[in-house]
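Problem 12. The chain below contains 232 residues. Write out its predicted structure in token notation.
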Amino acid sequence: MNKRATYEEVQPQIAAPAGKRILVWDLPTRIFHWSLVLAVTVAIVSGEIGGDWMEIHGKAGLAILGLVTFRLVWGFAGSTHARFVNFAPTAGKLRAYLRGRWKGQGHNPLGALSVFALLGLLAVQATTGLFGNDEISFTGPLFALVEEGLANRLTGLHKQLAYVLLGVLALHIVAILVYLVLKKDNLVKPMVTGFKEVRVGASAIKGSWAALVLALAAATAVVSAASGAVHW
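Solution.
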């Protein structure tokens, strides 16, 4: 039987004995993460500047929407540690983590809460921006599809959620610094290299090329529709 090809056949098998490092974050997850960091940074800066920068702000919002769509699909069809089911923050996992008994290779339960909160907020933020306006010259690509009153309400929500998003991002950064300083655990390094030191052996499945193509296709379709390229 032929072995199914994967996008990371050049990577070592995700398995390791005690005291070894394993591939926790696959390449698509790492590219998604840092692309999202860049897109959100551009969106925040351009939104604060306003004016002619609003065009860039809109494009950054579309990029965020596409990236979130990709991550949602990859969260169901991707490799083991990228799948939501494997790090969903259940009550049992949270209790175990708070008592110091949680063991895992991917996001810890509190980190998982942060991930889901950020993905949810970004999805809503990007979507409301599609129908918004800056009350001067810029309008979102789908602004004409809704009544002006609704567009104004969505714009207001978009602005209000921006502060919530900044707060969640700040907490996310603070948590990374706390882990680095107090626990001597560098959470950023694995998201760059993909590898993490573990105490116990671990095994996982890789994401297939088919899953990667599906996630990219879904992201492309959503961005195309959101940009107004598809006529409703």
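Discussion. Strands lie at 15-16, 21-23, 195-197, 202-203. Students who got a different answer should revisit the alignment rule from Section 12.3.
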